[in-house]
What does this fold into?
Amino acid sequence: MAITDWPLAERPREKLLALGAPALSDAELLAIFLRVGVAGKTAVDLARDLLQRFGSLTGIFAASQAELSQVHGMGLSKCVQLQAIFEMTRRALKEKMQAQDVLSSPQQVRDFLCLKLAQLPYEVFTVLFLDAQNKLISADELFRGSLMQTSVYPREVVKRALDHHAASVILAHNHPSGLAQQSQADELITQQLKQALALVDVRVLDHFIVAGNTTFSFAERGLL
It folds into this structure.
């Protein structure tokens, strides 16, 4: 049955207009973007196929064009539009973090880091540099490694902090293995960075590990 044959209250677009976007499921929101499905499947069915294949909206946004194209109904135009929406979402979150105290909305920081790091197949170490009002100055990818390890050099982090005139930082890296849990190496580099940055009066506010849509906070676990 085509979506146009559904009761008005159940059609994604009409439901959004009546109840607002938060009332829609991930599949319904994605269906509005897709607009049309394929033979034998509505846009909602196609959206569900994408969510099942890639696990989440974040997984869909982070998928490559080649991966998306393997799903019947996902042509070049839709793939490009998805990538554009993903980048706009990430930039919008970054703008919010630049305009307000990031500590006032820790979930916003988590969302930004998940969008930036969650689906990468390799390990990346990123640092958020903050000013004296805890507003974001810059989010820099400083080190990139293999699936197993990343070499992080405190000297380079300190240099970048001084270049940005940062008052504090939030450290972050991803675990492509999917386990959001700290290792002894993670704890060691956190303490090394904390000590090195303290020499130039830059505070380490937190260190996040990102694994899929899950985050681990050193500060929340009392590890700072």
